[in-house]
Amino acid sequence: MSKRNYKFCFGPWNISEGQDPYGSPVRPAQTFDWKLAALKKLGFDAMMFHDDDAVPDIDGKSDAQVRKESKLLKKKLADAGVAAEMVAPRLWFDPRTIDGAYTSNDPKCRKYAIERSLRCIDVANHLGTDLIVLWLAREGSYIRESKNARKCVDYLVEAIDAMLAHDKKIRISIEPKPDAKRVGCLIESAHSILAGLDTADDIDFAMSFGKLWSLHLNDQNGLKFDQDKPFGSANLRVAFNQVRALERNGYGKNGEYVCFDVHPFRPTKVEHWLAHLDNSRRTFLKLVAKARSFDEKQAKALIKDRNYAALDQLVIEHLLGR
Fold this sequence. Notes:
Elements: E1 7-10, H1 32-42, E2 46-50, H2 51-54, H3 63-80, E3 83-88, H4 107-127, E4 131-135, H5 149-166, E5 171-175, E6 183-188, H6 189-194, H7 199-208, E7 212-217, H8 236-249, E8 257-260, H9 275-293, H10 296-304, H11 308-320
Parallel strand pairs: 1-2, 1-8, 2-3, 4-5, 5-6, 6-7, 7-8
């Protein structure tokens, strides 16, 4: 396995105030400058953004204002030595996207979603990144009969085509499926788990097509709400296999970032507010060391012998540090 270094990233929302579907915030809100300083303090390399993280209240601002605020943010990042990793249009909060954004039954709402996405691309250009991430939240249906899934595919293609036409250099990562030359994917551990999939298999699949352009590592304890636990928190072996998949496929060799889309546990005190980010990276790096020191030769011999009981124990004892 190659001995390369990884670059690390997180987003402003990953220093959350503790609100979840069952409770209100439990920590005071902090400014973006405070979060940027925290990122630098932890030694991370880049920050990822939603469009309205970069330009708050983006829908109410002119193109000139969006350009001005994006460039000011770019300077702030450059002064801190931090790169912008990606920008994603946050389409799921606006009342116009209540029935989906790109796949809404209302053509005016679909038009809004595309126009907002094009502005997001402009923000990305001002920040110096060519990566747009699409999280297709609320694009499904509450009532199956309320949408024609075949038409929805056409709507998605129309939206993506409009984005690709708007900028000839932009790349689009979709969570979680790859497609076409300039459309790749971003895989998130918890989302794969919630879908009943194996994240390591998803990584292997995407990278076999050269399509894994970004990565959100976290953890998930079963089919609950999207928990965004620290990486490796719920299932260390599953996390180990994700790292092995990244290692064997050469993730990072083209400059891709390892992003942690994790949130503090709700009872977390303010003085421990950043631990989930630091801990996720520590766990990741320890698992990198575990992946690189795993006895692949012995594993191959056991696989050839179909001695999966011994292979199973080899992995367990390697993780236990025998």
